[in-house]
């Protein structure tokens, strides 16, 4: 008899991901490279016990610039993403959106720094470009999942534009607006992170004081950041976005209108990105193409291949950690499981973990554990797991309030009522975060882990943009492949784009 195919079920998908991670463990560098991690951790804890706000003289300016880059970048990315979402059925548009979001904002910042320097334009575009791709994907899927029945009953002869404006867009507009507000929170995280490459945001201040060993100032910056994120539900309102956008432009203009060196811009786009063997070479000479083949071998075989393997290893191990944190952590928000005080404490823990940018968490973990894959896996798993736990926890709290009066509480409620009902959304979120984890795994290479980001950062530091672009193209291809597999899994399990709970996932503030 022919061999039976593995059935595409929710349980089998989970077992497959766990099995892949187990197989990859022997190939992962999970050693604790720091000889005394507890000493580093104790210094960091001591800083939190005595935060030194006075040491950070430019804290107010860093906060304003962090918000300005975030608001301007998200606004520009949202507008571009909505335009791309309208044509999301086009393969070319989907490919463009995938390319944009596959390149992390830190990579965009490093690339844009070459022609435009550390300017406001670099910071805004570094956020807007990947966010345009993210908005295009999410908005496109929200439009696809909108109820089609209103459009079906329109009179014959109704134009496509009228049908879209009056029958489809109104049904998707509310979740799209709420998702846009959610992305502002994400934009603040991205804005903080791009400070690590020299832009004057909170990340720049954090990196500077960490290098100086001033942990009290580090704690002051992190506490300010958590306060900023923790209060966003009170000060972020859709009606105020035009005002915030105008204020962001004013703050960014205060940096000064630095005119780009156009000669440098032209050189970057006409010379630096061209493969070195082709610059000024005779394209009809066989020796030119032999040199190009040797050059590609160095980039693809010696750098891209090991970087891609390391990136995949970190990604798959992170997925397992993320799943454990998400499934175990969402109960921390359900009062009928952990009690009122426990839910409040759990909310604080998850806010800290999901609000701290993955790069920043990896940076902190690296200081404690030393350079290896372990800090990256822990940081990415905690960050992404906390995001999913937060989303599932809100839905779990809502479900727990709709159950019968004699429904169980505590672990019985968690194991017999909530987990079975939320397992589908959990898988949908996990598949959706899969490609995000891949690009995050690539970017932690800047910190010294031998993923694709390590080789990209090295190439940019050596002003070899031609090599960097090839390595980034490999990152884009890998992310696109994961996006394709993720879509197939979600479609095969009938999970939908967001597990059928998109409206609850981004509740209106």
TrEMBL record:
Transmembrane regions listed in the UniProt entry: 59-86, 106-133, 215-236, 243-263, 308-333, 442-461, 467-485
Q: How does it sit in the membrane?
A: Multi-pass membrane protein
Keywords, alphabetical: Cell membrane, Membrane, Transmembrane, Transmembrane helix, Transport
Q: InterPro entries this protein is in?
A: MetI-like_sf
Q: Which SUPFAM superfamilies match?
A: MetI-like
Q: Where in the cell is it found?
A: Cell membrane
The principal localisation class reads membrane
Extract one GO cellular component term from the record: plasma membrane
Q: From which domain of life does this come?
A: Bacteria
Instruction: State the protein's name.
Output: ABC transporter permease
Source organism: Xanthobacter tagetidis
């Amino acid at each position: 008899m022919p061999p039976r195919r593995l059935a595409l079920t929710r349980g089998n998908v989970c077992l497959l991901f766990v099995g892949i991670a187990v197989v990859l463990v022997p190939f992962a560098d999970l050693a604790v490279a720091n000889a005394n991690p507890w000493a580093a951790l104790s210094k960091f804890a001591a800083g939190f016990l005595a935060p030194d706000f006075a040491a950070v003289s430019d804290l107010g300016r860093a906060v304003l610039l962090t918000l300005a880059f975030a608001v301007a970048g998200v606004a520009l990315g949202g507008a571009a993403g909505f335009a791309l979402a309208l044509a999301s059925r086009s393969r070319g548009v989907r490919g463009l959106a995938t390319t944009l979001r596959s390149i992390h904002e830190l990579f965009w910042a490093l690339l844009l720094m070459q022609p435009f320097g550390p300017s406001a334009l670099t910071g805004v575009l570094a956020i807007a470009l990947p966010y345009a791709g993210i908005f295009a994907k999410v908005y496109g899927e929200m439009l696809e999942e909108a109820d089609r029945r209103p459009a079906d009953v329109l009179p014959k002869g109704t134009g496509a534009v009228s049908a879209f404006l009056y029958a489809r867009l109104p049904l998707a507009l509310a979740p799209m607006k709420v998702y846009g507000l959610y992305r502002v929170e994400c934009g603040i995280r991205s804005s903080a992170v791009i400070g690590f490459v020299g832009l004057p945001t909170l990340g720049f201040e954090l990196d500077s004081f960490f290098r100086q060993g001033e942990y009290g100032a580090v704690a002051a910056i992190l506490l300010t950041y958590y306060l900023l994120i923790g209060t966003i539900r009170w000060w972020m309102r859709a009606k105020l976005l035009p005002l915030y956008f105008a204020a962001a432009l004013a703050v960014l203009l205060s940096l000064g209108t630095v005119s780009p060196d156009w000669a440098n811009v032209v050189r970057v786009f006409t010379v630096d990105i061209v493969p070195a063997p082709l610059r000024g070479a005779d394209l009809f000479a066989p020796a030119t193409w032999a040199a190009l083949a040797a050059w590609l071998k160095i980039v693809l075989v010696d750098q891209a291949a090991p970087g891609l393997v390391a990136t995949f290893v970190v990604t798959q191990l992170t997925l397992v950690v993320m799943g454990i944190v998400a499934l175990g952590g969402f109960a921390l928000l359900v009062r009928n499981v952990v009690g009122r005080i426990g839910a409040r404490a759990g909310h604080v823990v998850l806010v800290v973990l999901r609000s701290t940018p993955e790069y920043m968490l990896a940076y902190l973990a690296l200081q404690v554990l030393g350079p290896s894959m372990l800090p990256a896996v822990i940081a990415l798993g905690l960050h992404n797991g906390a995001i999913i736990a937060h989303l599932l926890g809100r839905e779990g709290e809502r479900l727990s309030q709709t159950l019968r009066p004699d429904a169980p509480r505590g672990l019985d409620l968690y194991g017999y009522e909530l987990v079975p009902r939320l397992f589908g959304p959990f898988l949908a979120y996990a598949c959706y975060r899969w490609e995000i984890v891949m690009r995050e795994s690539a970017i932690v290479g800047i910190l010294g882990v031998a993923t694709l980001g390590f080789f990209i950062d090295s190439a940019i530091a050596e002003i070899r943009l031609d090599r960097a672009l090839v390595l980034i193209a490999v990152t884009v291809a890998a992310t696109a492949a994961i996006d394709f597999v993720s879509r197939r899994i979600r479609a095969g399990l009938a999970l939908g784009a967001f597990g059928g709970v998109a409206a609850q996932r981004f509740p209106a503030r």
